[in-house]
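re: ur question from earlier - yeah i can do the single chain one, its not a big deal. heres the input i used so u can compare w yours
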Amino acid sequence: MGTVNINRNVTDMFYRYKMPKVVVKVEGKGNGIKTRIVNMSEIAKALVRPPSYPTKFFGCELGAQTTIDNKTDKYIVNGSFTSDKLQDMLDVFIQKFVLCPKCENPETSLTVDKKNQINQRCMACGYRGPLTVVHKLTQFVIKNPPNSLADNGAGKKDKKGGKGKGKKKDSDSEEEKVNGQHAQYQDADREVDQESPPPVAESDEVDDEWGAVEDEADQVGEALSSVSISGDAEKSTEEKMNIFFNFVENKKKGGSVAAQSKDLYAEAERLDIVDKAPIVLAEVLLTENVIKELGSYRIVFLRFTNQNKRAQRSLLLAIEMFIKTNIVLLPKTGHILKCLYDHDIVDEEVLIGWQTKASKKTVGKELSVQIHAKAEPFIKWLQEAEEESDSEEESEEEEDDEVALEFSYQAGSGGLTEAKAKPAPAEEEDDFDIDAI
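and the output i got, formated as tokens:
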């Protein structure tokens, strides 16, 4: 069984964060065929996540049922899938739920607070903040927090054994025995809370307007990460974004998103999140076939971005976050932006302004530089086309301002007089016989 880098975008052979390659075994036939992830426990231990998380993630992505049995170490996804396919899907899970959004280091831990908010903390750089990701798995994480004993079955074992409060140390040792690495990270996490000062924020080179949009994007990510499992309808930012996310997702499942763009806009308007709504739309509607899907959902995005520059900026930031979680699309950045421009979803003025201000907060400085570098040829073409258009308009205005003048000796004081065009003489019509037609 070989190993690979946890972050497979890192090609350094000396990268110290390793995990086992996904090993699967296809069992059954016909409608009962299923794929068992043989080494899911080892993979989960390397990622410091409960094995139920990646298993459930596979089920959500593939639209398949899953079977999770911690006691017998069985993690099954219904259907037949290859190791390579699940390995690629595991990369997406790692990008969304493991890597630190600041330093992209996998030394992170997840916790769920009393408000059903998923928080992420990095032992490497000290980052602390909400899990800025939208996915069905977030509901599962909230119901099954990583710091509980629900995943490893220890709670059930204690209950069967009839252990009381006096045996708390035994239950703690059992928890550490089942998931020792996770317990170590939890201890380190507490040390960070007690000893480490808050991380110093990087200086932002964005202007006030773009900075405000990025702050809103962070807030939206925070809202979307804490998908509420209750029916509470309070009007906080988190719940508004959750309500809209579920609304769009249900429309997509019903196959009626494009046909009901007015309903989507009305819902966003009712929740007072029109400017932020494109972030949710991009997360729910777009996949790796983003260029084709932007054409299919053009009317939906136009409903929000038409003559709304803030919504356009939110969409561009959402595209950056989308590329971060689908890094294979990085070379197609220019094509995606051109598609937004060709479909009139984002104005050239907003695109050019976006290019001049790298958004470090959203995707990190290094990736932001790469995204903007890939976009540079298209933006350069856009600027040149704009300059040519401006020069043509100026020349047309100069021609309109020019008046046809001629020197006239008949003028009282002599000089220039305006030349008036003489009407062309009317051509004589030939006589014809109507009956001959």
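DSSP finds 18 helices and eleven strands in the chain. not sure if urs matches, ping me
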